[in-house]
Structures are given as C-alpha cells and as structure tokens.
Amino acid sequence: MMTLRLFLLASLVFAAGCSIPIPQATADPTRFYVLTSTTPAVETAGVWPIVHLREVEVATYLRSRPMVVRRGNHEVEFREYARWGEPLELGLSRVLREELLARGAAAAVLTPGLRQAGVVYDYELKVRVLAAEGTTDEAIVFRAAWELTATAAKTEPVARGDFRPADLRWDGTSEATLVGGLNAAVAALATEIAAAFAKK
User: Fold this and answer.
1) Cβ partners under 8 Å of residue 51, min gap 6
2) Residues of the chain whose pLDDT is less than 70?
3) pLDDT value for 11
4) Residue 108, C-beta contacts closer than 8 angstroms, at least 6 positions apart
5) pLDDT computed for residue 28 by the predictor
6) What pLDDT was estimated at residue 153?
C-alpha cells in the first residue's frame, strides 16, 4: 500500500512538473554606438602646427554610457538600451583629432595617449563639451567651449569659442540618427577650430 502511494505521489509530481512553462530566452535589445569621422582628408601645402589636444572634458551627466535625451529644461532621460560603445569623452577626442587632421589644420594632433617624448608642440587645445544630446522635439543640443593657447606664451588663449550649432535634427526615435547628428556637430566644431589655426 505504501509503495502504491509513493508511486501515485511521484506520478503527480512528474505530471505537475511537465505542465510548468519553461521561459524562452529573449534577445538583448541593447545597441551600442560610436562617433565616427566622415570628412575625407584633403591635400594641403605649407607648414602646419603640431597641436596638443588635451583630454576632452564632458559635463558630469554625459559620462554615463546610456545616451541622453532631454525632456524640457530640467529633465533628462537615459536611454538604457542605446549605449555608447566607449566613454563619450574618448570618442569626442578621437573624432575631433581625425576631423582636424582631415582638414589639414595641423601637421599632427597629439592626444594624451598619443603624445611622444621629445616632441615639441606649437599649440595646446582645450575642449569642454557642455551638452551632447537629443530632445523630445527632435532637435540636437550640442555645446562646446574651446581654447587655443600658444605653447611659447602660456598666458591668454590666442583663440577661443563657444560653439552651439542651431540646425541639427534627429527623428526622435532612432538613436542612430542622433549619433549621426552628433557626428555632424563635432565636424562643424573642427571646422571652427581649424579656421582659428588658419588665422595664425
């Protein structure tokens, strides 16, 4: 009798176990993005400076990996499923360097990781990015303050700017279009800085 009861109990447990749904694996929706230089290199003649591009600074709220979308003046949304593939400050530094070189604005642009011992540079370039995000009304907000200082006279900057492009848009849903707009913003920033080199 005891054996029969154990058999029936085991059968019930087995039947119940068979009816338990097994959760299905779902694909990770996270996407990763990087900034990219799209300006083709140009051939230039003349003697161009060697520039030390200091580490690009970014506002504290931009240091997170999720991309930022602004909702009004005081609220930001972090897109957890749309992330930068590298720290934003490193991506900005890399693309700004490539854009300056592509324009022939400098013979070399040395970043902290690329500096070589014994190389003397002519200018020091400081860039601080204060905004780099989309908005819910499909605008792109980008602001960068920059200063160019001659190495021989480290006093007042020889040029400075507060760059704020006003006509950049994205579609409001695809973060890829936001990254494309930010690429355009960095390229336009490089154009402004390159113009300052041309005046020296």
Assistant:
1) 100, 105, 106, 108, 109, 110, 121, 122, 123, 124, 125, 197
2) 1-23, 43-47, 114-118, 153-155, 199-200
3) 57
4) 50, 51, 101, 119, 121
5) 82
6) 66
d(CA 98, CA 195): 16
106 closest CA partner among 94, 129, 86, 123: 123
Instruction: Assign 3-state DSSP to the chain and report helix, strand, coil percentages, each to 5.
Output: 30, 30, 40
Residue that has been written with the tokens 């500096």 in this structure: 115
How high is the pLDDT of residue 72? Answer: 86
CB-CB contact of 181 with 169 (8 Å): yes
Beta bridge partners of 131: 143
CA distance 191 to 195: 6
Domains and CATH numbers, the chain: 44-198 (3.40.50.10610)
Q: What is the per-residue pLDDT across 77-87, written as a single tens digit (0 to 9) for each?
A: 999 999 999 99
Give the pLDDT confidence score for residue 152 in this predicted structure. 73
Q: Are 108 and 122 in contact (CB under 8 A)?
A: no
Alpha helices in the chain, H assignment, sequence order: 2-18, 88-102, 175-198
Pairing mode, strands 108-110 and 75-84: unpaired
**Distances, alpha carbon 168 to alpha carbons 17, 21, 94, 182, in Å:** 57, 49, 21, 8
